[in-house]
Amino acid sequence: MDYQAVLEEVAAHVRPQIGRGRVAQYIPALASVDEDRFGIALADVDGRVTGVGDWERPFSMQSISKAFSLALVLAEDGEKLWRRVGREPSGNPFNSLVQLEYEHGIPRNPFINAGALVVTDRLHTLTGDASTTMLDFLRAESGNPDLAFDQEVAVSETAHGDRNAALAHFMAGYGNLDNPVPTVLEHYFWQCSIEMSCRDLALAGGFLARHGLRADGSRLLSRSEAKRVNAVMLTCGTYDAAGDFAYRVGLPGKSGVGGGIVAVVPGRCTLCVWSPGLDARGNSVAGVAALDHFTTLTDWSVF
Ligand code: DON
């Protein structure tokens, strides 16, 4: 398949949608991003990568980091995590507090903020430094040693992080955090702030298409664990729009409020699309449309 030609056709198809939606406003450092950006990259399982548009321009990965932290914890710790976090879609916004109380401090899944805080807490306990562990992993997998935290975003998010702090304190009240709340929040915010391009993210998510194998051929996850991360991405990776994303795109995907989405075609390739305009559920409008058109053109959905 001529990936370049496919991505160009995808980009042409979604051009009218670029600039639609709203750039995330709740973190001031994200609100200043140019809403007319669009990039898409595809990395095949052999690590060949191609892209169009702004595919080499770094953006804030935000919640896409949650897919990597989940994989890193499962790699270190296996199935124990599931005692502390569920794996059902929440049907609620990513930052919702409401289910936590009647579900006794156990978040529905690792991709809503509450669940990601538990995963970060576990990663921190296992490694001694959750955010640096993730940064090192992303540098190795993307082959980009220049990847870095965006201090402005992390500081901005910390200053406007009352809701995440409420989630963390609430779970600590149920005994579902091992580390102090400020430590967990700090590592969660720094992970979210990492700046990456579509190129970097398509390469870094390659292990999910390679059934758990890292870029250097070593194994991060067993085949079964890789399948499970992909399954949770499919059912929960786009929050309360996961049903619609499965309906339209039909791939495991993880979005972030920076406007990026990573999607996986197991056995074939990992894609990353970026366009900052978000829909009401926090997913990139042009990004979802691009992946929708990609699977229509290639017939590469998992269904
Ligand atoms: O927790 C937050 O609010 C952000 N750092 C991440 C949110 C996010 O990307 C959710 N996504 N769609």
From TrEMBL:
Positions binding substrate in this chain are 63, 113, 157, 164, 188, 239, 257
The protein depicted here goes by the name Glutaminase
GO MF entry, a single one: glutaminase activity
Which HAMAP family does the record match to this protein?
Glutaminase
Superkingdom of this protein's organism: Bacteria
Question: According to its UniProt record, what is one Pfam family this protein matches?
Answer: Glutaminase
Query: Which reactions fall under this protein's catalytic activity?
Result: L-glutamine + H2O = L-glutamate + NH4(+)
Per the UniProt entry, what species is this protein from, by scientific name? Streptomyces endocoffeicus
Catalytic activity, EC: 3.5.1.2
Keywords on record = Acetylation, Hydrolase
PANTHER family named in the record: GLUTAMINASE (PTHR12544:SF29)
Please give the NCBIfam families that the UniProt record associates with this protein: Gln_ase, PRK00971.1-1, PRK00971.1-2
Q: Does the keyword Amino-acid biosynthesis apply?
A: no
Family, similarity comment: Belongs to the glutaminase family.
**Subunit composition and interactions:** Homotetramer.
